[in-house]
Model the fold of this input.
Amino acid sequence: MKAALTSEVRKVVTTRLWWVLLICMVAGSAFMAGIVAFSFAFADQLGGESATPPGMDPRMMAATIYGLAVSFGYVFPAILGALAVTGEVRHRTIDTTVLADPSRGRIIIAKLVAVLPVAALYGVAGMAGAVATGAAGLALADSPTYLDDASMWGSIGMGAVALTTWGLVGVGLGAAVPHQVAVIVALIGWTQLVEPILRLVLGLIEPLAGVSAYLPGAAGDAMVGASFYSTTGAGDLLAPWAGFAVLLAYGALAAIIGWLTTFRRDLT
Done:
């Protein structure tokens, strides 16, 4: 197992792609949090009456702004995880991998463990970027940042855990859908278009409003305890640890499907 882990870690960190995705994620998270926070700061100049949207308390607003790294940035660790599998399939290095280690279940586990520390770095860096610009905007708006509140740091920490978990989900998805282009297009389409629309639509249908909480993106938001989507009426969120369990279940299910299909087939 040690040799498999060493091999998989090297496959992740010896290419430029992991840090290119990291830079994109931090920049995107900082931009999203900053643009929303600064829009509150300049609400008066834009014709608004208050820095806090109606019906939202300042603490929830701060948590929602910091959580934008999870709401919109989770596609990056998910792609990182997916590429850990699909990159090998595309470049046919998977043949060498399974010849060196015929236990395909161990290969999947090694990939999951190898992606974990890099995904954790994504989580910490993404949340740091969102907190930095978000807090600056809130301070400019004379709205409390709540960075002196231990419970807020708990939410920020859970956001980092959520982004880390998305890296594991990505590995599972890559195993289930080994075609690199297909899985990247599917991840971008789902995270940036399909799920946001689903959450908004389901939130408007009262009998189905609770279903949106079990969508993968909503499960990640639940770990933060606040969501940009839920503040717009797109359904409620699960409890933080329930969201964590649901997100892990998605990753485990995808990994099992990948093990039963992709990694059971003849790869040569």
Summary: DSSP finds twelve helices and no strands in the chain.
